Every structure is written in structure tokens, then in C-alpha cells.
Amino acid sequence: MKDMTTVLNKKIVNKETNEVRLVVKIDEENRKIFSVPASEPTAEPTCMAAASYDRRWRLCEEPATEEQTAAEPQPEELVTEPQPEEPKTEAPAAEDKPEPMKMSETITALENIFDKLNAIYFEGKLPRPVITVQTTPKAYGHCSTKKIWKSENEGMYEINLGAEFINRPKESTCATLLHEMVHLFCTENEIADTCQNGRYHNKTFKAECESRDLIVEYDRANGYAHTSPTDAFKAKLAEAGVDLSVRFARVMPKAKAKAEREKAHRYVCSVCGQEVRTTSELSLICGHCNVTMDRLD
Predict the structure, then answer these.
(1) CATH code of the domain containing 223
(2) What is the phi/psi pair of residue 36, to 5°?
(3) Taking Cα atoms as reference points, which of 284, 288, 247 lies closest to residue 271?
């Protein structure tokens, strides 16, 4: 406290115990306060430091007397009629900000969709894989051909959906998931559905996909690798109550354009034929013939 005189001859209250004391003396030089119990004004004063007062004590607020609290009636000539209140205008409600994306919720949704597609198209017989969302800029997804997730007693396949494409319409994302589930079905049943190290999708894969409500398209490099949902597939998703909404997708940084390499200039000695190549603009003299070398571009 800066001004100790503000508590002199006043009652103070302990913030913790509610003890009331009367300040009877202050020592500004040594920053001391002397007080007695409010109920025993003749008792021996007790000393406390000003810093201790700041932490543990406060001024006692005396209750107001009836005379102080009673409102004085206004003379009749001063009584004014109440003014009509101005209409209150409500401030526009703040727009609700969307919650930040949680990839864990997306993974959980994909696991639930896997279970539903497994029941619809595979009689629930496919083993549950580990479902991931990782970067695959050149593919919508992949399915491992081996159980690459392992513990001491068991292993699990992996189905990954490309992080760059995870915010496509749910029917397209679900069609990609089913595409990878067909690969898993073929792996489990030892059906050769691809060749060329898994890149080229053959007619067996095409037949398995078409039997499960997928449209299959062909390209020369990858075979029957391009799948999309049919109306029947979309209807079954709606009937199963499939819901998937992902607002974000990973954006890959753009590759820096490579600077064009400067073409080298060719300098040749007209006497001995010695040749030099450089990208710099130079004036060269042949060390053997002591003649200026000609630039031949």
C-alpha cells in the first residue's frame, strides 16, 4: 500500500478468517501497522507489516445507516414523467465457425464404411485392414498384398486412401475404398488380379469390380484400373446410411520449374584447331599459336 494513512483509525477485515481489527497507529518510516481487536479497543496493539496487510487484509465496509439509505423524496415540481425507452436493436449473431478438421474422425468413418461394404459385397468375410490416409499424388489409393502391420501374434493388411483426393464426393471415395477391397478379396483368395508389379489391372479384376456395382474403364498403361460408382452402388450407400464429409485435402507444393541450361559457346583456333567450350562471353587467344580464337556457335 502506498498511503498508510488511509487505514488509520479504521476497521480492517482478515480476508481468510473475517477477523475485524481497529488500526490505532501507523509507522510510515518502518512500514508498520498497529491494530487491536475491534471488540477490545484497550487491548495491547499488535504489529504487522504493510506488505502483510496488502496480502491478507482489507478495509471493513461499514453498513449504511437508515438515514443514509433512505431516499429523499423529490419535490413535486421536480418530478418528471418517465421517458419512453428507445427500442433495443439486437446485434447480428456471429457466424458459427466450422470446427477444425480431425483426421481421426475421418479414419473412424472410413472404418465404419469398410464394415458396411464388407457386409454388402463380401458377406462380411474380409479381414479388417488398417485404414490410413497418406499422400499418394499419383493414385487414389492402394492395398498392400501382405500383412505389413504386425504385432507379436497377428498381422493386418493396409488400405490407404490418397490424402490429396480425400475430399472428393463421398460416392467416389467409397468407390475407391471398394476398389481396394476387391484387391484385398483377390489377395485373400489367391486370385491373380494384377500383373507388372501390381500396376496393370487385368480382366479378372474388371469382372470382380463389375459384379460389385462399379464402372470399370480401360487405359493402355494400367489396364482396367479406373473405377467409378454406378447408380446401384450409390443407392446401396444411401440405404446403408453411409455418411462421409471431408472438407480438406492435402495440397502438394508445386515443383519448382527447372531453369533452362545455357548453351555453351564454341571457340576454335584457326591455325591448330584447338577448341574451347564455355557459356561465358570471352575473347580467347590460343596459347600455342598466339592468335585470337574464333567463336563458332
Answers:
(1) 3.30.2010.10
(2) -130, 160
(3) 288
Nearest of 43, 40, 49, 47 to residue 20 by alpha carbon: 40
The answer to whether residues 219 and 192 touch, using CB atoms and an 8 Å cutoff, is no
SS3 228: strand
Q: At 13, phi and psi to the nearest 5? A: -125, 135
| Co-location of 108 and 54 in the same domain | no
Q: How many domains does the chain have?
A: 3
Give the Cα separation of 130 and 145 in Å (integer): 13
* Contact in structure between 50 and 31 (CB atoms under 8 Å): yes
Asked if residue 118 and residue 221 are part of one domain, the reply reads yes
- Kindly give the interhelix angle for 203-210 and 170-188, rounded to the nearest 10 degrees: 120
Cα–Cα distance, 271 to 248 (Å, whole number):
69
Task: Give me the residues of the chain with pLDDT under 50, please.
Answer: 64-79
The verdict on residue 66 lying in a domain is no
Instruction: Please calculate the CA angle 45-50-55 and round it to the nearest 5 degrees.
Output: 110
Domain of 108 in residue numbering reads as 103-239
Q: Which three cell numbers stand for residue 200?
A: 496393370
Closest CA to 109 of 173, 165, 65, 156: 173
Question: What's the pLDDT score for residue 178?
Answer: 97
Cβ neighbourhood burial of 64 (10 Å; 0-12, 13-18, 19+) = exposed
In a domain? residue 254: no
Q: Is the dihedral of CA 236, 239, 241, 243 positive or negative?
A: positive
DSSP for 234-288?
Answer: HHHHHHTT----------PPPPPPPPPPPPPEEEE-TTT--EEEESS----B-TT
Instruction: Read off the CATH number of the domain in which 55 is found.
Output: 2.30.30.30
User: Side chain identity at 87, as an amino acid letter?
Assistant: P
Helix (H) or strand (E) holding 224, with range, is strand 223-229
